[in-house]
Amino acid sequence: MTNNITTGPRGLPISGNLFAFRKDPLGFLQKAAKEHGDVVHIRFGPQRHIYLISNPEYIKEVLVTKQSSFHKAKGLRTAKAVIGEGLLTSEGKKHLRQRRLIQPVFHKQRIAAYGDRMVEFAKNLIDGWQDREERLITQDMMELTLAIITDTMFGIDVRQDVHDIGHAIDVGMHYVSRRASSFIDIPLAVPTKSNREFQHAIEVLDKTIYHIIEERRSQSEPERGDLLSMLLAARDEMNGTGMTDQEVRDQVMTIFIAGHETTANTLSWTWYLLSQHPEVERRFWDELDNVLEGRLPTVDDIPSLTYTNNILWEAMRLYPPAWSISREAVEPVQIGEYCFEPGETLMMSQYVMHRKEEYFENPDRFFPERFEGDILKRIPQFAYFPFGGGPRICIGNNFALMEAVLLLATIGQRYKLELAPNHPSVEPEPLVTLRPKKGIRMVVKQR
């Protein structure tokens, strides 16, 4: 690199900025961007060079106009240990083929048909709640969205196994997060405690998914139109061969994990934010009462639930489900006035961008009203990008938004959620996704 890019303090140890980053990733990145500008050089260990990009035009170049000069960086390559060569981790032609295959499942007209099932699952959850009981709402939201994604995408019911599956996913997320920010990679074959726990978690997930595949392959019933049916029916254009169980497993695992984790986190953060802002909560209830008039919500109600939608957009601004995106240069590439070499990593943080004062007045304030106007037209495209952008934008973004609105409306219509007494400070935990650290306990009160 020959650019005049601001770096960290002189005399860094061999670990570079790694331990400062690990201690407080979000705070570290915010401070780096605020103090050092649009492009900041960060070093993890002696050889791993990372550049934090905090200019929306530069981000657009990386994710859109010059995206072919990059591939997924270490974090998502590490995630292959969990999800294999699925849509999230594959590159090039393989990724394009997978996306073309899966895209029809997430067409707006098709996902609209899932709305009633989403509401039904939410109703079943709250039918089991008791007035004024304390619940771990983060777990409730994870189990709810996991049940929905497996039902709508794969036509199965995993509610009996949801605790074991949820724990296995949790172990996998922590493992991937640790390895993504390390500069010494201990091979998975080394029997450390972390490696053993991770391998057991993968065994639990594989057992579940391969059972799903085996059961569906053995059935002679007509094609159901869900994602699993489409994967099993897919044929190679050249030789007519179908997907192997391993290939199907990787796609199922990707949707299995990515299709519920992010939405569950967004819902948990939203319930927490509503509990801390009674004026927003009251307006939320007023809209539900006026639009729904006591009945369950439907997909047709979503355009009328404008404030509920704005609440979600604002929650994703403050606590974006994906808090950063990284790309590794595969060839020399110029971004803005800066030149990057192959192997160098560019990191773009939604958490940092979404809290920049030049785009969002009082950025730390929870204020859904900011989305009532044309703010997304007035600010640069990549000042706000909760679902990423470019060819690899989240394929399930419409599914997730529809699900989140319907679940918020169904639950909020009947219950007020308050933070449990003596609850410790609620803090974000930046793993692969942005989770509430140690979960959120809330008291549910009938309205």
UniProtKB/TrEMBL annotation:
Belongs to the cytochrome P450 family. CDD domains: CYP132-like (cd20620). Heme binds at C394. One of its GO terms (molecular function) is heme binding. It comes from the Bacteria. Its cofactor is heme. This is Cytochrome P450. InterPro entries: Cyt_P450 (IPR001128), Cyt_P450_CS (IPR017972), Cyt_P450_E_grp-I (IPR002401), Cyt_P450_sf (IPR036396), Cytochrome_P450_Monoox (IPR050196). SUPFAM superfamilies: Cytochrome P450.
